[in-house]
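Q: What residues go here?
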């Protein structure tokens, strides 16, 4: 979970600091130096404000799966450098040190892999896919999909289109109408820089700071970051629990409800048709709440079973049911192409916000993407589905054979497995220590708490199956190795390396 840390926060606990540390140990050097160096940087950038009390050595050692000595030596190094001080009975605190005044936000640790350099051999945290070959070919040779007049139409234009390149708005509207049963006109579509920006714009326009926003718990961590940045109050509900949603709507009067009904991230579950109908009915009863159906993963079934209709297909004219989507998981994330489907009035509001944010996504790219959607969509989707199924098969087979104690509900689609680690199901069970141990073996996995609305610890990890099958198999072997060192059972994470000798 994203927790802004400011000077009023007197202490930080082990798991919260572990989130901030990111992949601190995925580099060369003694562990205590890597740890001290990372804490020092967080202090320099005022992410850890002056006066903040660091976790007790024993707690941080357990969370990071290192020896207590490693933490003690790291804290000593910080003291030697004047960045921390320790007093009898009050622990170790960050000292005033070249801080900036406005450390109000940090990215969800989920983004660490993209924001920092780290030496991880197998990154299973980010569900990013390689470019589909059809897309790569079109990017290499735009004339293969865009005629010469179409290309010069783009280059002769001024290039600023906050609503989106007109042909792409039309292509997305056609896609929603013909493939997903959501009757849509081009005027109801806003092109965005990925689904991430789509949700960001929506929240900024539809929710005020302090207002409640409902999200499934667990959910897509990037959405939690957006809610946090906008100062909203995220309220969790178990995926698919309509009774709970009705209760939350009554109690919290949320500004928005963010749902991923089709191939939910991270669980891969699909909300059944009747539940969708009930939610569409709730949208009628609560017109002040914007109901968001995130269809980013909706074209990625892992079987041939047909998913039920999206929310907007059930109530196409209900103004508070909004659809967002993206080509990032099917075509390629590097296109950064997403969209919002909403009534024209909301689209106008969102376009104004988009103009303020970036004046529009790149026009040339959008022209290429519109041609790809019109000419190659079917082919690309078919290719990507096989691609995803082969990867899921490889990872699930390797987990079954190497980590037989791990359990998960078979995902019906998407790109992630939400796996439950074995061990005691206690309230304090937390997969962070396991994730740290795995990191030391070169595998990055997402501890479940980063996908949780209230940051509650849980015995879950999210595993993205987007690496090549042989790498997924190798990663499962390394995870089994971490598990066999006791990292997979809770309450007793063992230290892997001593402070002085722990060299990567
Ligand atoms: C459910 C969901 N929504 C949104 C996004 C962000 O997508 P994009 O890369 O298009 O911004 C993701 C990416 O993983 C996702 O899984």
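A:
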């Amino acid at each position: 979970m994203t927790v802004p840390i400011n000077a009023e926060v007197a202490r930080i606990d082990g798991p919260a600091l572990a989130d901030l540390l990111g992949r601190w140990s995925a580099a060369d050097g003694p562990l205590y130096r890597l740890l001290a160096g990372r804490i020092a940087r967080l202090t320099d950038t005022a992410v850890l404000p002056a006066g903040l009390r660091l976790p007790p050595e024993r707690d941080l050692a357990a969370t990071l799966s290192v020896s207590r000595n490693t933490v003690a030596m790291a804290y000593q190094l910080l003291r030697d450098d004047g960045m921390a001080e320790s007093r009898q009975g009050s622990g170790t605190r960050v000292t005033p040190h070249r801080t900036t005044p406005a450390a109000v936000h940090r990215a969800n640790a989920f983004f660490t892999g993209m924001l920092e350099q780290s030496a991880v051999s197998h990154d299973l945290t980010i569900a990013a896919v390689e470019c589909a070959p059809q897309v790569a070919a079109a990017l290499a040779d735009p004339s293969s999909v865009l005629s010469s007049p179409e290309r010069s139409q783009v280059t002769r234009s001024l290039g600023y289109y906050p609503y989106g390149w007109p042909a792409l708005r039309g292509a997305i509207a056609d896609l929603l109408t013909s493939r997903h049963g959501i009757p849509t006109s081009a005027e109801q579509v806003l092109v965005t820089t990925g689904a991430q920006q789509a949700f960001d714009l929506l929240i900024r326009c539809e929710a005020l700071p302090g207002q409640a926003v409902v999200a499934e718990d667990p959910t897509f961590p990037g959405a939690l970051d957006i809610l946090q940045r906008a100062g909203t109050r995220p309220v969790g509900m178990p995926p698919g629990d309509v009774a709970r949603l009705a209760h939350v709507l009554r109690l919290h009067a949320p500004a928005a409800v963010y749902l991923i009904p089709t191939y939910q991230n991270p669980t891969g579950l699909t909300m059944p048709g009747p539940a969708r109908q009930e939610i569409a009915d709730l949208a009628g009863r609560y017109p002040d709440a914007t109901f968001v159906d995130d269809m980013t993963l909706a074209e990625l079934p892992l079987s041939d079973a047909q998913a039920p209709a999206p929310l907007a297909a059930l109530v196409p004219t209900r103004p508070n049911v909004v659809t967002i989507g993206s080509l990032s998981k099917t075509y390629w994330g590097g296109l950064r192409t997403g969209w919002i489907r909403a009534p024209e009035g909301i689209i106008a509001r969102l376009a104004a916000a988009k103009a303020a944010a970036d004046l529009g996504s790149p026009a040339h790219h959008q022209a290429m993407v519109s041609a790809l959607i019109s000419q190659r969509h079917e082919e690309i989707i078919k290719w990507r589905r096989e691609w995803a199924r082969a990867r899921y098969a490889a990872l699930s087979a390797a987990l079954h054979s190497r980590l037989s104690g791990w359990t998960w509900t078979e995902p019906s689609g998407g790109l992630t497995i939400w796996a439950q680690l074995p061990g005691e199901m206690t309230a304090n069970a937390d997969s962070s220590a396991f994730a740290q141990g795995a990191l030391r073996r070169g595998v990055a996995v997402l501890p479940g708490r980063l996908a949780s609305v209230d940051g509650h610890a849980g015995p879950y990890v999210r595993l993205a199956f987007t690496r090549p099958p042989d790498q997924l198999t190798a990663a499962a072997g390394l995870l089994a190795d971490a598990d066999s060192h006791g990292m997979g059972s809770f309450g007793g994470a063992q230290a892997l390396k001593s402070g002085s000798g722990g060299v990567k």
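A: Context that may help when evaluating the design: Residues 61 and 441 are 17 Å apart (CA to CA). Residues 1-9, 99-105, 488-504 have pLDDT under 50 and may be disordered.
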